[in-house]
Amino acid sequence: MKWIIFSAFICLVIAGCAQLKSGKNSSEKPKSIENMKNKIVKSEEEWKNELSPEEYRVLREKGTERAFTGAYWNNHEDGVYLCAACGQELFDSETKFESGTGWPSFFAPLSKEAVEEETDISFGMVRTEVMCGKCGGHLGHVFNDGPKPTKMRYCINSVSLKFQKEKE
Questions:
Q1: What is the mean pLDDT of residues 36-48?
Q2: How would residue 37 be classed by pLDDT, with cut points 50, 70 and 90?
Q3: I need a surface site. Which of 46, 84, 115, 130 has the fewest CB within 10 A?
Q4: How many angstroms separate the CA atoms of 90 and 134, rounded?
């Protein structure tokens, strides 16, 4: 009987450790030390002082703006979309497409380092959250129902972005 209880305990510990891996593939290489040096780390008080209340709600508290209300869902200008919190370049207008969702949608970030992804199980759903690769600010979510060539749809809150128009 003790052996069965001990075995069950070991199984629970192993299962708990597996969940801590945050859903990332164990064959992925760890982030480079150089990439970690470039991370922006601030207290929540510092973020509150630097961001508008709506920016703070979305970027730091993982909120969502209402569809069709953001500044960039219908933007068709050429340029680059930056993180509203830290200025990191995130998406190029060439990857923006009309998804019909009411949020700016992109089929790819500028680079792998520009954004980070993490499993989000809030609201009884399993989704993939997208965060700024530099400051960790919540940007939105990514879905696998986008156009070619990636078939991905990065559905991003306008309030998480700043737009830098292409110089003519």
A1: 87
A2: low
A3: 46
A4: 10
Q: Percent of the chain beyond pLDDT 70?
A: 77
Beta strands in the chain (DSSP E): 79-83, 89-92, 96-97, 105-106, 115-120, 127-132, 138-143, 153-156, 161-165
SS (H, E, C) 32-69: CHHHHHCCCCCCHHHHHHHCCHHHHHHHCCCCCCCCCC
Q: Where are the domains of the chain?
A: 42-165
- Quick one: which of 40, 37, 42 has its CA closest to 135? 40
Is residue 55 within 8 A of residue 87, CB to CB? The reply is no
Q: How far apart are CA 105 and CA 152, in angstroms?
A: 9
* The two structure tokens encoding residue 61: 């508290």
Written as six digits, the tokens of 82 are 């930056």
Catalytic position from the list 83, 132, 135, 155: 155
Q: What is the pTM of this model?
A: 0.77
Class of domain 42-165: mainly beta
Q: Which residue has the higher pLDDT, 112 or 19?
A: 112
Known catalytic membership, residue 17:
no
For the four alpha carbons of 65, 73, 156 and 160, in that order, the dihedral sign comes to: negative
Q: Residue 42 above 60 pLDDT?
A: yes
* Strand pairing report for 89-92 and 153-156: unpaired
